[in-house]
Specification:
globular; alpha+beta; five-stranded antiparallel sheet
Length: 355
């Protein structure tokens, strides 16, 4: 009798469990540990009203092992306000060094990477092949190249390298496009302006959308052309935008850059008339880029299945010629009507062996 009771209880439990079916796997959760980990960075980006479009953008972050201890450190890029930048006030970027205990120490000053002006984002790559990652900081009023000097410090190598920019740069990626063993640099630019003075009257004809007051720009401001810089191997770069075929005759407003086999994708917004025009995708073969982008060593934001695979050592592949967050690009203007136009540069000749 007792055995029968045990059997009945077991069968009841099995039937009850099976009626519920297999349990769904639990999703991971996250806990905000910034304060306890020692991270106290405060980001500044324009006024609370966000009168201009660049005030509502920015705040890039780079993860890099700058000191070669096997732990990822964090570099935060800070913005500014029109009032402060016109008074010469900088809010400063921040570099946090990771410890083995999972905490972070602010080493910005001793590393010499405070930044200047109005920061927008950053990208990382070992452009001088010294074995440690360097930092290229994008800004509204100019960019900064920090060379890693092995001793825990960085040197501002912007002027020597010829990478000061001067336009509102929104995104960049290191990529060895000519496959000579040195990382080159593609920079996407948005508009040309001088933030040290108010670029537009507010409110004004360029600060409304169908009668509704909105932030000013990009309409009313000239688009800034992108730039492709070839690494000369001696710490300097040469602007090869024209010869490589990546210079637009009528620049649009750059938003993002993605690199990966077999090319470079650039997302653009286009403003005409009274509103943002809707454009589809187009693909353009890059003139003069004789050495294929395919399998070129890269750093920055890749196109591919796993961004984690790209950290200066090579592109995951193979992948179709697509741009970030975009559908595959056809060879001519598409009938698709989307709010961005994406340019995809593909190789125009056979790949050459790395020298």
């Amino acid at each position: 009798m007792r055995a029968n009771a045990v059997l009945l209880a077991t069968l009841s439990a099995l039937i009850f469990a099976s009626s519920w079916g297999p349990s769904e796997p639990s999703l991971p959760t996250f806990t905000d540990i910034a304060a306890s980990a020692g991270i106290h960075f405060q980001h500044t980006s324009g006024s609370p009203e966000k009168n201009y479009i660049f005030e509502a953008k920015g705040g890039g972050v780079c993860l890099l092992d700058y000191d070669g201890d096997g732990r990822l450190d964090i570099y935060f890029v800070n913005g500014n306000t029109l009032e402060d930048i016109q008074r010469g006030v900088s809010h400063g970027n921040a570099l946090y060094r990771a410890s083995a205990e999972g905490t972070y120490t602010d080493v910005t000053k001793e590393a010499g990477v405070q930044g200047r002006g109005w920061g927008m984002g950053c990208t990382v790559g070992d452009y001088d092949n010294n074995g440690l990652p360097d930092i290229y900081v994008l800004g509204v009023n100019g960019n900064v190249l920090y060379r890693n000097d092995h001793d825990g410090r960085f040197t501002d190598a912007t002027e020597k390298a010829g990478l000061s920019g001067g336009r509102w740069s929104t995104s960049a990626a290191f990529v060895d496009y000519d496959r000579d063993g040195d990382l080159d640099l593609y920079v996407a630019n948005n508009i040309q302006l001088d933030v040290r003075r108010s670029p537009l009257s507010f409110p004004g004809p360029d600060c409304n959308y169908r009668g509704t007051r909105v932030m000013c720009g990009p309409r009313g401001l000239p688009g800034a052309p992108d730039a492709l810089y070839r690494n000369n191997g001696d710490g300097t770069f040469t602007d090869v935008s024209v010869s490589a075929g990546v210079l637009e005759e009528s620049p649009h407003y750059g938003l993002g850059v993605a690199v990966g086999a077999p090319g470079v994708g650039v997302a653009k917004s286009v403003a005409t008339g009274e509103a943002v025009a809707e454009f589809g995708f187009s693909a353009t073969g890059a003139k003069g880029v004789g050495d294929a982008f395919a399998d070129a060593p890269a750093g920055g934001m890749p196109v591919g299945d796993s961004a984690a695979e790209v950290s200066g050592s090579g592109c995951p592949g193979p992948h179709p010629p697509i741009a970030a967050n975009a559908s595959p690009a056809p060879q001519s203007e598409s009938a698709l009507r989307l709010p961005i136009a994406t340019r995809v540069f593909k190789p125009s000749g056979p790949p050459n062996a790395v020298a």
